[in-house]
Fold this sequence. Notes:
Blueprint: E1 4-11, E2 15-22, E3 27-31, H1 36-46, E4 52-54, H2 60-63, H3 66-73, E5 76-80, E6 92-94, E7 99-102, E8 105-111, E9 120-124, E10 129-131, E11 136-137, E12 140-141, H4 149-160, E13 167-169, H5 175-185, H6 190-204, E14 212-213, H7 214-220, H8 229-235, H9 242-255
Bound molecules: zinc ion and fe (iii) ion (FE).
Fe (iii) ion is lined by residues 59, 61-62, 134, 171-172.
Amino acid sequence: MAQLEIHQFPCLSDNYGVLIRDAGADVVASIDAPEAEAVKRALAEKGWRLTHILTTHHHVDHTAGNLALKAETNCTIIGPRGEAAKIPGLDQAVGEGDVFTFGSFQVHVFDTPGHTAGHIIYWLPAADAAFVGDTLFAIGCGRVIEGTRETMWQSLEKVMALPPSTTVYCGHEYTLANARFALTIEPENDALQQRAKEVERLVAAGQPTLPTRIDLELATNPFLRPGSPDIRRRLGMVGEPDWKVFGEIRSRKDRA
Ligand code: ZN
Ligand code: FE
């Protein structure tokens, strides 16, 4: 079976760039394009030739490199139908339920509105990998900028429904601050306590804390745990719907 090669690299102040490659088909995609130079350096390092950009949402720290990379490589830019007009150089608009091929891999698209109104994520089941942009972060989630807390919760539920073994690539390295906040929401969560220590260690060593996994997030990410009786008791929200508990956690993080 084909192997998906994945190369993650830091860029800008706290973004991640990710390149994926199906060697058999000689296709290489950049997941978002935070800045052209960093993506070009990463391509040169690997000796890879860019054929695609898969855009998650329109924010400039995810699209600033689009036009320069397209001018240089003539790559195909695929991105969210719901905000197509805001994606520089967009060739192919995709949305909920769409499946397209990348080399020998099928790429499934989900709409995950909330951070932006048209945000999408990409799931490659045969690679057991998902690329979620600014919808989910390690121990956190994106700010709700263009949607409601309820739609953001529905978007996160789609991410939570991916197989537990899925490796998840996110747009930013926010994990240390997220872990410290999470401990104020669910301090008695043993898995979270352990993970927070591991995150401290990685960050002190200058190592990335990403990618993450669905099962790890389900166990430690308070934004995915509004059903936790401990969280509900702490927030005084026993009996409230999940999305409201999620919304309260999101509000507290916005103020933190
Ligand atoms: Zn963003
Ligand atoms: Fe971002």
